[in-house]
Amino acid sequence: MNKSGFAWVLCLALALGSMFDAAAQGAAPAAKGAAPSPAAGSALDVLKGSWVRPDGGYVIAIRNVGANGQLDATYYNPKALPFARAQAMQVGGALRVVFELQAGGYAGSVYELTYDAVNDRLQGVFRQAVVKQTFEVQFVRRKA
């Protein structure tokens, strides 16, 4: 291998090593448009509680938040339906949540919401897969 080939391999090894080191320390590589990462710890605790959709009375109840962003949540319309997936993540400076339904006539339907800290609400879109429509929605925190 000539000197330029060796230098290229060395640069690649150093770059890969720094990426793996950052991952091992829990840091994401600094790159524009990087993939979302699960939000951690107490930053997610703000999501706990009952959230009501004012335009229909639908409720998302978030009971617990895992360190990896996994949410222990249920959907009420008006009966309880389990989420196939309930996940929170940080995307840039925003706290985002995704809820996927597979039960009760909602197969493949997804809520993609962002937490609005100023107004203490979740807002975004609901993709209703069965009727193939997308709705802008918001959920407000139900006061005890």
List keywords for this structure.
144 residues; alpha+beta; Lipocalin; 2 domains; 1 helix; globular
Question: What's the topology here?
Answer:
Elements: H1 3-24, E1 37-38, E2 49-52, E3 59-65, E4 71-76, E5 80-91, E6 94-101, E7 109-116, E8 121-128, E9 133-141
Antiparallel strand pairs: 1-5, 2-3, 2-9, 3-4, 4-5, 5-6, 6-7, 7-8, 8-9
Q: Could you explain how this protein is built, in words?
A:
The protein has two domains: 1-28; 39-141, Lipocalin (Beta Barrel). 15% of the residues lie in helices and 44% in strands. It has one helix at residues 3-24; strands at residues 37-38, 49-52, 59-65, 71-76, 80-91, 94-101, 109-116, 121-128, 133-141. The radius of gyration is 20 Å and the shape is globular. The chain starts with a helix and ends with a strand.
Query: Strand order within the widest sheet?
Result: 2-3-4-5-6-7-8-9
Q: Report the mean per-residue pLDDT as an integer.
A: 79
User: Which regions are unreliable across 5 or more consecutive residues at pLDDT < 50?
Assistant: 1-35
Distance between the termini: 70 Å
What fraction strand? Answer: 35-45%
Count up the domains: 2
**Tertiary shape:** globular
Could you estimate the helical fraction of the residues in percent? 10-25%
Structural class comes to alpha+beta
Q: What Rg do the Cα atoms give? A: 20 Å
- Report on the biggest sheet: 8 strands, antiparallel, barrel
Number of helices: 1
Order of helices and strands: HEEEEEEEEE
Give the quaternary arrangement of the chains.
Answer: single chain
CATH class of the largest domain: Mainly Beta
Number of strands: 9
CATH superfamily of the largest domain: Avidin-like
CATH hierarchy: architecture of the largest domain: Beta Barrel
Determine the CATH topology of the largest domain.
Lipocalin
